[in-house]
Amino acid sequence: MIGTILRQRYRIIKKLGEGGFCETYLAEDLDIPVTPKPVCVVKRLKPREINPDSIRLFEQEARILYELGQNHDQIPKSYAHFQEGQEFYLIQEFIDGHNLTQEITPGKKLGEADVIQLLRDVLEILVYVHKNKVIHRDIKPANIMRRKDGKLVLIDFGVVKQINTTIAIKSGSTSRTSGFGTVGYMPIEQAIGKPKLSSDIYALGMIAIQALIDLSPRLLAEDDDGEIIWIDQVEISERLKQFINKMVCCEWRQRYRNAKEALDELNKIFVINQRLLVVPKLVPVRLNGKYGYVSGGKLVIPCQFGLANNFSEGLASVIKGAKWGFINTIGELAIPYQFDNAFRFSEELAIVQIGEKYGYINTNGQIVIPCEFNQIYWFSEGLAAVQIGEKYGYINTNGEIFISCQFDRTLWFSEGLATVRIGDKCGYINTNGQIVIPYQFDNAYDFSEGLAKVTISGKDYLIDKTGKIVY
Questions:
Q1: Per-residue pLDDT band at 62 (split at 50, 70, 90)
Q2: How far, CA to CA in Å, does 327 sit from each of 2, 259, 286, 331, 333?
Q3: CB-based burial of residue 354 (10 Å sphere; 0-12 exposed, 13-18 middle, 19+ buried)?
Q4: Which end of the chain is more exposed for a tag (fewer CB within 10 A), N or C?
Q5: What is the pLDDT of residues 370-405, one digit of tens each?
Q6: Which fold has domain 5-93?
Q7: In the prediction, which pLDDT does 175 show?
Q8: Phi-psi region of 445 (alpha: psi -120 to 50; beta: other; left: phi over 0)
Q9: What residues does each domain of the chain span?
C-alpha cells in the first residue's frame, strides 16, 4: 500500500497498525496546496464479503463517525468514506500525540488524583457519545490518545453501532450484534454479542484498575461471583474503590447505566469546583499595613485587609476589623466577616473558628460540621484529622467519626496513607484506619510520588509504601 494514491488524492506514506479486518495508514492529502502536505489517517477495512448488508452497515457506521467527529473536539473528524473493489476506506483526522499505553505502562502506577482525572476526562467524552446512543465497544489505553495540547481524544470507533430502540427482536431484547472488543476490557454481555452503554463504563473501570495496580486486566483474578479481585492490591480512598467497583460489576444492570450517570456520581464524590477553571494566580501583598493581591504585575485587589491568606478553590480568607470572611478572585465578599479565624478551602470545605472551637464551612459559607473540636486539619481524600479530648482521629465530610480518636498525633492523608503517632513513634494508616506501616519512626511525613521522608535516630530516610527504606 505504501505509495498508493486513493481517489487521486490520498497518498499512503506509512503503515500505522493492523488488526483483525482493518489496516491503518498515514497518508498525505494531495489536494491541499501547501508544502509539506497535511496528513490524515486512512482505515482500510476488509470485510469477509461485500453484499448489500455490509455496504449498508459501512454507510451507517461512517455516518455515525462523521456526526460524532463534527460536533466534538475530542473525537477524530471524518473527512471521507468510500468503497474500492472489495475494500472499504475511511479517511479521518490525524491526532498528533501519543496513546495511553505510554502512560499506563508496566512498572508504573498512577496515583489516586491522576486516576480520578483520567476517569473524569474520558467520561466527559463518553457523555457525548452515549447521548448520541452510540457504544464505543473497544475502550482501552491504545484507543485513548493524549493530544499535544494535553487533551484526551477517543479514537477507533470502527465497530460502533447505532442503537435503534425501535428495532428489536420479537422477545423485546436488544438486537444481537457482534461481540467485538478486547479481552480484559470487554464485559460478559459484550462478549456474547449484546453490548450496553454500561459496557463502555466497565472497560474504563478496568483501565482505572490497571493504572492503579500495574497489572493487565487479563491477569486479574475473579471471585466465585465473577467479580474482579483487585482492592487488596492498592491503597486508595474507600470512595474511589466503591466508585470503580460499581463500574466493573459483572452484572451490567448493577453498573452506572451510562457515562452521564457515572460522571455525575464522580463529580459528586470528588467535587469539581468550577472556580478552579478560571482562577488567576493571586498573591497577597502588604502596603502601608494593609493587604491586597497582585497578579501579572498589577495590583488587582486593593490593599484593604488586616490580614490575607492565599487563594484556594477560588476563595481566600481575609480579616477586616476583628472578624474573618472570604473573598472571591475579583475581590468581592463571598462569605461575610463572622469568624474568629478562617483557613483555606480543601475539597470544598474550610476550617473556621468560633470562640475556642473549630468546625467546617462549605463554599456557600454554611457551617456543615459544627465548631466543636479543639483542633482540626483540612480535608484530604475525604477525611480530616480532629482532636477530641487528648486524642486524635478522623472524621468524614459528614462530620462523622470515621477512624476513632486513638492517636497522640496525626497528619492529613496523602496517596492513601496518613502519618499517626502513638507515644514517641510514628507509623502509617490507610483510609480504613488500619496500620499498614508499623510504629517505628521518630518522625514521619506525608507521601509524595510514592515516597515519604522518615527520621530514625536522627537520620533522614525515604521509604516506599511498604515501609521499606529505599534511600
A1: confident
A2: 62, 35, 17, 6, 4
A3: middle
A4: C
A5: 999 999 999 998 999 999 999 999 999 999 999 999
A6: Phosphorylase Kinase; domain 1 (3.30.200)
A7: 44
A8: beta
A9: 5-93, 97-164+177-270, 274-367, 374-471
**pLDDT tens profile 212-221:** 999 999 999 9
- pLDDT for 183 beyond 50: yes
Average pLDDT over residues 329-344: 94
244-299: per-residue pLDDT in tens?
A: 999 999 999 999 999 999 999 998 887 655 444 444 689 999 999 999 999 888 99
Cell numbers that stand for 225 in this block = 461471583
Q: Which residues are catalytic?
A: 138
The CATH code for residues 97-164+177-270 is: 1.10.510.10
C-alpha cell at 25: 495508514
This prediction has a pTM of: 0.60
DSSP β-bridge partners for residue 456: 459
Place of cell 507515644: 423
- What would the grid cell of residue 125 be? 467524552
Nearest CA among 48, 54, 95 for reference residue 74: 95
Confirm if 463 and 469 have CB atoms less than 8 A apart.
Answer: yes
Q: Scan for cell 464479503, then name that residue.
A: 49
Q: Is 381 exposed, middle or buried (0-12, 13-18, 19+ CB in 10 A)?
A: buried
> In the CATH hierarchy, which top-level class contains the domain 274-367?
mainly beta
Closest CA to 386 of 367, 366, 409: 409
The confidence score (pLDDT) of residue 271 equals: 63
What is the C-alpha to C-alpha distance for residues 19 and 10, in angstroms, rounded to an integer?
21
d(CA 210, CA 115): 10
